[in-house]
């Protein structure tokens, strides 16, 4: 037995020497590596130190909380992400089987009637149950690296599911904020329409008694119609927004219940986070890192294809026979084999080169993911800061236009100004009030997007030991 093992090892060594030069795994391209900055470029208002995993509850709207609960349970994208995890887990279990020995059992039974040399008929019955085992000695790590790659791919799929969950939550919040903004705009238009209607009635009364010209009546009619035609557009947008929210929560189209008004919603507090901390607080970055590690494992497995495959096998059984012997006989066998690639037409080398390219592609994808994440945070930081400034300016403009409308109305009633000055002031005030509603919604959505860019409250699972390339 010892001599056979020595021969097997000698044959393995000979196969390696015959196979020739084994290619080395090249390093990741230096230009594909990424270094995170020490601080954010944009102004960052740090409000709290801890990341709130249920940050949306800070808006204090129970209706929104219920919508998110429904989305987390019924959303189709989340369900698909969970199914993909099951698929990846099945592939992981399948690749793990290559690390274990294969054991089979078989049995056969024969019954034969024959004549012996003396012309006497004999009936022979033979039964032979056998157990067979085969195992590939993973000396060079081919199967082990394949399993490692499948395990990392499964973990990457879990990170993709976490990213999907964050996306569904933030999209639901932003859709709800947009819906409440549309409600505010509709309410503004309806109030404005009521005011225009009262002014139209006054203009009609004045025109009927000849106190004003037909021009002022036509101007009042046009202003009333201009306001009226905007209402169906907003109503259509509200319906579409309700349809979008219904899909997010996994429901057919329905009327969405309302909670707090837009002005009552408060932006969630943004946690203090450095750019370096973003690497472990965004699931898409962790996913990209896992895929890079999986590509490294696949590359190592492809390199092992250049080495010989060493297999051992064993079998054990018993033979039960009625003739020529009546006692059972034990049978067994044990052996080993070495299969070394000598000429494959460049197939193994091409597979190795392919995996090198895939590893480099994964490295560039990791760099792109990190740079995109940094950009998204910087964009939202800039957006939030400037939207606050815009809202302050709009508040000042609205106050000035409200005073201008007051003075224009008084001057018109006193006969010092034409009715057109009143109309211009009304239009300008309505436009600014609509912009102010949109600015408030944009600021809230920007803060939500900033929270999403920072990872949405997700934190990396502790048992995932992923090194940044």
From TrEMBL:
<keyword id="KW-0564">Palmitate</keyword>
<dbReference type="InterPro" id="IPR003423">
    <property type="entry name" value="OMP_efflux"/>
</dbReference>
<dbReference type="InterPro" id="IPR010131">
    <property type="entry name" value="MdtP/NodT-like"/>
</dbReference>
<keyword id="KW-0449">Lipoprotein</keyword>
<protein>
    <submittedName>
        <fullName>RND efflux system, outer membrane lipoprotein, NodT family</fullName>
    </submittedName>
</protein>
<keyword id="KW-0812">Transmembrane</keyword>
<keyword id="KW-1134">Transmembrane beta strand</keyword>
<dbReference type="GO" id="GO:0015562">
    <property type="term" value="F:efflux transmembrane transporter activity"/>
</dbReference>
<keyword id="KW-0732">Signal</keyword>
<keyword id="KW-0472">Membrane</keyword>
<comment type="similarity">
    <text>Belongs to the outer membrane factor (OMF) (TC 1.B.17) family.</text>
</comment>
<dbReference type="Pfam" id="PF02321">
    <property type="entry name" value="OEP"/>
</dbReference>
<feature type="signal peptide">
    <location>
        <begin position="1"/>
        <end position="20"/>
    </location>
</feature>
<dbReference type="GO" id="GO:0005886">
    <property type="term" value="C:plasma membrane"/>
</dbReference>
């Amino acid at each position: 037995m010892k001599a056979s093992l020595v021969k097997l090892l000698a044959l393995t060594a000979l196969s390696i020497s015959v196979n020739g030069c084994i290619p080395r795994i090249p390093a990741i391209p230096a230009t594909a590596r990424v270094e995170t900055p020490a601080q954010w470029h944009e102004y960052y208002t740090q409000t709290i130190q801890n990341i709130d995993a249920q940050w949306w509850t800070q808006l204090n709207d129970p209706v929104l909380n219920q919508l998110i609960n429904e989305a987390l349970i019924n959303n189709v994208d989340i369900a698909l992400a969970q199914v993909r995890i099951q698929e990846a887990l099945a592939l992981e279990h399948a690749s793990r089987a290559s690390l274990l020995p294969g054991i089979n059992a078989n049995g056969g039974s024969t019954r034969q009637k024959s004549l012996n040399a003396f012309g006497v008929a004999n009936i022979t019955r033979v039964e032979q149950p056998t157990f067979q085992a085969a195992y590939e000695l993973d000396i060079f790590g081919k199967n082990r690296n394949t399993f490692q790659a499948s395990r990392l791919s499964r973990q990457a799929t879990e990170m993709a599911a976490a990213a999907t969950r964050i996306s569904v939550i933030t999209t639901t919040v932003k859709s709800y904020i947009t819906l409440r903004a549309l409600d505010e705009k509709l309410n503004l238009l309806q109030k404005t329409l009521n005011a225009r209607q009262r002014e139209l009635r006054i203009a009609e009364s004045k025109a009927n008694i000849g106190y004003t010209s037909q021009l002022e009546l036509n101007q009042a009619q046009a202003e009333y119609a201009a306001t009226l035609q905007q209402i169906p557009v907003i109503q259509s947008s509200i319906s579409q927004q309700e349809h979008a929210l219904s899909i997010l929560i996994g429901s057919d189209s329905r009327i969405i219940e309302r909670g707090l008004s837009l002005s009552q919603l408060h932006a969630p507090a943004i946690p203090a986070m450095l750019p370096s901390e973003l690497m472990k607080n965004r699931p898409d970055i962790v996913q990209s890192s896992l895929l890079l590690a999986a590509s490294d494992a696949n590359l190592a497995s492809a390199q092992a294809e250049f080495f010989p495959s060493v297999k051992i096998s064993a079998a054990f059984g018993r033979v039960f026979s009625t003739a020529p012997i009546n006692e059972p006989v034990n049978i067994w066998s044990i052996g080993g084999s070495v299969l070394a690639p000598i000429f494959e037409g460049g197939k193994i080398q091409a597979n190795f080169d392919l995996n090198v390219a895939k590893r480099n592609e994964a490295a560039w994808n990791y760099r792109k993911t990190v740079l995109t994440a940094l950009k998204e945070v910087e964009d939202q930081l800039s957006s939030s800061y400037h939207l606050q400034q815009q809202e302050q300016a709009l508040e000042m403009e609205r106050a000035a236009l409200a005073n201008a409308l007051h003075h224009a109305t008084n001057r018109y009633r006193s006969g010092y100004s034409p009715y057109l000055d009143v109309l211009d002031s009304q239009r300008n005030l309505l436009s600014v009030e609509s912009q102010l509603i949109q600015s408030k919604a944009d600021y809230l959505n920007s803060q939500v997007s900033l929270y999403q860019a920072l990872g949405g409250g997700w934190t990396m699972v502790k048992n995932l030991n992923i090194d940044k390339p």
